[in-house]
Amino acid sequence: MIIDTADLDPTSAYKLLIGSVLPRAIAWVSTSSTSGVGNIAPISFFTVVGRFPPILSITMQPRSDGVTLKDTFVNIRDTGEFVVNITTIGQADAVHRSAFEFDTDVDEFEALGLEKAPSEVISAPRIADSPISFECVVDRIIPMPPLPDHVVWGRVKRIHIRDDLYLPRGRVDVGALGIFGRLAAEYTMVDNIFTTPLPEPLVEELAALRAGRLDGHAADYSPIDTTAWSPSGSTKELAK
User: Fold this and answer.
1) Does the pLDDT value for residue 240 go beyond 70?
2) CA dihedral of residues 12, 188, 51, 61 (deg, nearest 10)
3) Could you tell me the domains of the chain?
4) pTM
C-alpha cells in the first residue's frame, strides 16, 4: 500500500505517525502557570536536537477540541521555562493519568498525588520521584500551521540525576532505569538490551514473534478504537 499524505486528514496522519515511529521516548513535562498552578503532561513527540548546548524538543497539539491550547504550552509560552522528567515503569499509571484534560486552575501535582521538587535555576517544579530531570528554558517556539500545533526547543540549564544512576566517566546506568516508551496509544516496557550481531537463529525467532501484552487485553486491542483516545494526545476517559 502507498499512501499519499495529501489525501490524509490530520487524525489519519496522526494515527499513521504514532503507529509507525516506535517506540517513542516520553517527556513527562512539568510546568507552572504565571499564577503558580502546577501542570504535568506526557509528550511523546520528544527528542534531542542539540548536544552542546544540550537542547530538547517537544511538540504539542491543542486540546481534544482541536482549538484550545494545552495548559502545558501556555505555561511554557508565558513563563519561558519547563522541566522534562524521565519516566519509569513505577510511574506508568500516573503518566497515563496526567494526559487527562484537567481544568486550568487544577494543580495537577495535587490531583495526581505527585510530589514537587524545586528546580535550581527556573521556577517550574520537578517531579520529585523522577530519576532524571532536565531544567529547560525556551530556546525557540516554532508554530506548525495550518494546525495550532507548536514545536518547543528547550535549552537545558541543569540536569538532575539519581546518584546510583550516574556511573564513572559520565555514563548513565540505563539498565537500572526501568524505562518504558510510547507505542501508538499504548506503552512498551524496555526490558532487554543487546548489541549486534545477534545469533541468526535468535533473530529469526524474534522476528516471527508478535509482541506480547502485559495487561490482559486481547492481542488486537488498542485504545485508539475506544472513546478514551483523541488525536490531541489527551486521554478523555479510562479505556473499558
Assistant:
1) no
2) 30
3) 5-225 (2.30.110.10)
4) 0.95
